[in-house]
Please model this.
Amino acid sequence: MKKRIRLSMLAIVLSLAMTSPVLADSKSACVAIGADNTEAQLKTVYGYFNIKRGDVEETIVTNADERAYLDGVVSLDKIGTLALSSVYVQEASSGGINLETHNIDWVTDEMYKSALGTAGIKNAKVIVAAYTPVSGTGALTGIYKAYEAATNTSLDEAAKSTAVEEVVVVGELQDAIGDDAVKIVNSLKGEIAQTKNMNDDQIRQLIVETAKKYDTVLDDQQIEEILSLVNKFNELNMDPDTFIKLMEASQGTQGFFQQVQSFFQEIGNFFNNFK
Model:
């Protein structure tokens, strides 16, 4: 009899474990749609989100919204004249940034995660999608709008602008040197407690030394672009510890594995009580 009870309870808890890990620790959600999508195109996008339209709050992002952050930072060919990328954002209490992309062909997942940490987003499930391949630069605006709507909070404007510039600088650097671009910038983020007290020449030297760790030699223009970015990191209205924790949280999956470990420990404790 006890064996049948144990098997039944095990089936129940395992079925719960197989549901999305975000559900047990999720809060509000919002979708930000590109204003220039047709209804048919939005149907494709919502298919990537795996929800029905109307299930969560929806806001609209226009090309003018995107240009508010991108003008003067990114080339016009990457901005375009249409707002096509859309995003789904669900707030979470832990676990860092759980991110996936569909039809985004320039901004990488790691670039998004790093930039969202800069913008102040610590824990969230984020899906960026378009019905056709797009660069993905404009999607940051949608992420901001959806996150702020879902959480009923406002992200720091300077942090949002810096995150957009980060994506552009890292993206162009990645075109030139490859995937180590985001690693170099993230390494420099980890030095913000020091760079806040450095002059430009000292930061330039740190940039050169950091690049060498990844067997990379940067040209003068690349160094100056990274220097401008580091100085903007230094000016953000958050202390170094908070900044670094946001960066680490945006990159990590530690929270999920801790939840799984805790979950199965609780299962073990539960069945021990039946002995």
Remarks:
- Strands lie at 26-34, 57-61, 86-92, 97-104, 124-134.
- The radius of gyration is 21 Å.
